[in-house]
Every structure is written in C-alpha cells, then in structure tokens.
Amino acid sequence: MSQNKTVRVVHLDNNEAAFSLAVVPFEARENELHLVVGTAQDTLLLPRSCTSGFLRVYKFTNDGADLELVHKVNISGSHLHCELTQRRRS
What we know:
Elements (H helix, E strand, L loop, with lengths): L15 E11 L5 E10 L10 E10 L4 E9 L4 H11 L1
C-alpha cells in the first residue's frame, strides 16, 4: 500500500497564495511534464479580490522529488484573469 506524503514545500513570496495547479505536458519540450500553479497576491475572501494573479511553471527534477521554477507570468489585466475573477464573484 502506498502512502501519501509531502515531498516538497514551495514558499511563495510577496503575499501570494496558490489556488490551482495542474500537471501539464509541454509539446515544445517533448511532452515533458511541468507543474503549473495559479497564484493570487494580497487575496481577500470577502469581498473576493486580489491585487495580482500569476501562473508559475515548475519543472520536475530529481526524479520528481524537487521542483525548479522555470517561468512566472503576471496574468493581471489579461482576459484570463478577468474571466476567473468574474466566475468567482458569480
């Protein structure tokens, strides 16, 4: 029987919190799996708001036991960020 355990903790900076994640194959990198994490900065739950939204892309290293930050993109002001914010308010 396998056991679930935490293998890596990533501390986020600038008052960011993670709200979503997905393991995604990137075709440009020969379908190598990456972890994509959606974060929000300065989040308030009521009323629901945040100052910025980001997507962080991590590469799995050390046979999946570690993560390396490859890219962080600010999605604030983008169509995606606006759509996600509207869905949360509904």
